[in-house]
Amino acid sequence: MVYGEGSLSSLSGYFNDTTMYQISIPVNPGNSGGPLLDDNGNIIGVIRGKQTSSEATGFAIKSNEILKSIRSSVTADTTKQGLLVQGKKSPLKNMKRSEQIKRINPYVFNVLVYKRDS
Questions:
Q1: Which of 8, 49, 65, 94 has its CA 20 to 30 A from that of 20?
Q2: pTM to 2 decimals?
Q3: Helices (H), the chain
Q4: What is the DSSP code (8-state) at residue 28?
Q5: Is 50 exposed, middle or buried (0-12, 13-18, 19+ CB in 10 A)?
Q6: What CA–CA distances, in Å, run from 114 to 11, 30, 46, 48?
Q7: Per-residue DSSP letter, 15
Q8: Which residues are CB-contacts of 73 (< 8 A; sequence separation ≥ 6)?
Q9: Residue 20, C-beta contacts closer than 8 angstroms, at least 6 positions apart
Q10: Quick check: 60 and 34 in contact, CB under 8 A?
């Protein structure tokens, strides 16, 4: 897992997309799908991509938009309730960032997608 430090540049993304944040952090291939954390270790977004015409300008989908999507697409007979835990105090709050990273590392996975030749 790679850790980068940056900040929210804008509360809206590319072309004023309000479902995304603009972030000032270097985003590289392979970072997409990674968590965007606040100071307390809460996931506030998921890295989506970067602006190729400028350095250290990336975009992240806001976590509340992801939760809305899950709520609208997950059926009642699934583990929906387990997915939507909110309002609980983050167990990572008040930890040093290095300790937060150690705690979340076991929950970060690479997903490889292969194109099948027809």
A1: 94
A2: 0.63
A3: 63-73, 80-83, 97-104
A4: -
A5: buried
A6: 34, 14, 22, 19
A7: G
A8: none
A9: 12, 13, 14, 45, 48, 59, 60, 61, 62, 65
A10: no
